[in-house]
Design goal:
By secondary structure, the chain is an alpha+beta fold. The chain is built from nine helices and ten strands. A five-stranded antiparallel beta sheet has the order 1-2-3-5-4, with helices on both faces. Strands 6-8-9 form a three-stranded antiparallel beta sheet, with helices on one face. A two-stranded antiparallel sheet has the order 7-10. The longest helix has 22 residues, at 253-274.
């Protein structure tokens, strides 16, 4: 599905490395079967450990802080959410062969929504997001960088325009720039920041018996503008499902337009970066852009 390395300066991770980390730090689990999980994820390598555990190791330096965030927040959040989320079990430490913290998590059952489309996903996702946004966010983490998920959309202007320029051979950049310019002129989020997942798409959802069962990969977890959690409206849904999702989320027009801007920004940055190394994410980016333009052309 994906070539071995997707990023410059990516940390090589293989079966032997994971086995050695387990042997030196968690010998009680070293005898369990270990199998790489085939995934379109870009920040972490995932290995299934036995039938009940998973090992998660950052591939790239920008993902390193996600391990500490998971161990700080996910167990606390789980008790307040209607769908399952990853639950950390044990935190591994850097070694001479692997330079960063890593984690062991409970294995979550279910099939990835890329391969098993759930029934009425707009309803399950809206319920999850309403619950997430109601959780007390006063002590939650700020977005990880000035352009990270949850910041004001205008802070993404430079990186988004640069990506649009880079993708000029792949996209109708004139129309995309018009959509982007409209989005960044919309009023900003004027209320207290709320909890956001930050990276909702089919690859980060699990399905059991045709129903959403879990939301995974909280690497972008923060408190901020909830518009970025509207991403599935464009990266997953068709027009009618998008309308159903908008109604279920009950957001104002400005938040919806910012959400469309987020979908465009994420997609135009992903497409030139992953169009050769990660065909699943590249196709998702193309679909998202197509749906954004469909919205724009049917205003």
């Amino acid at each position: 599905m994906i070539r071995l390395l997707m990023h410059p300066n990516e940390q090589p991770i293989d079966h032997a490395l994971v086995q050695s980390l387990l042997a030196s730090q968690f010998p009680e689990w070293v005898g369990l079967p270990l199998q790489k999980v085939d995934s379109a994820g870009t920040d972490n390598a995932i290995y299934r450990l036995g039938s009940e555990l998973a090992v998660r190791l950052p591939r790239i330096d920008w993902a390193v802080d996600q391990i500490a965030s998971d161990f700080r927040w996910l167990s606390w959040l789980q008790a307040q959410l209607p769908l399952q989320i990853p639950q950390p079990i044990a935190q591994g430490q850097p070694t001479a062969n692997y330079p960063w913290p890593w984690g062991i998590y409970a294995w979550l059952a279910g099939e990835n929504a890329i391969n098993a489309r759930p029934n009425n996903p707009e309803h399950g996702l809206s319920q999850f997001l309403h619950a997430l946004q109601k959780i007390d966010a006063q002590t939650g983490p700020a977005p990880a960088s000035p352009t990270a998920r949850g910041v004001s959309l205008i802070q993404r202007n430079a990186v988004t325009r640069a990506a649009i320029t880079q993708a000029h051979t792949l996209l109708d950049t004139e129309q995309i720039l018009a959509v982007w310019d409209h989005a960044i002129q919309i009023e900003t989020w004027a209320y207290a920041p709320v909890w956001i997942h930050g990276d909702l798409h089919a690859g980060n959802l699990l399905v059991i018996d045709s129903n959403l069962s879990a939301v995974i990969d909280f690497g972008a977890l923060a408190v901020g503008d909830p518009a970025c959690d509207l991403l599935p409206a464009w990266n997953m849904f068709d027009r009618q499902t998008r309308l159903n999702f908008r109604q279920a989320m009950a957001v104002d027009a400005a938040t919806w337009i910012r959400g469309r801007g987020w979908a465009l920004s994420v997609a135009v940055i992903a497409l030139p970066y992953y169009h050769q190394s990660n065909p699943v994410l590249a196709q998702m980016a193309r679909y998202s852009i197509q749906q954004v333009l469909d919205d724009w052309n049917n205003l």
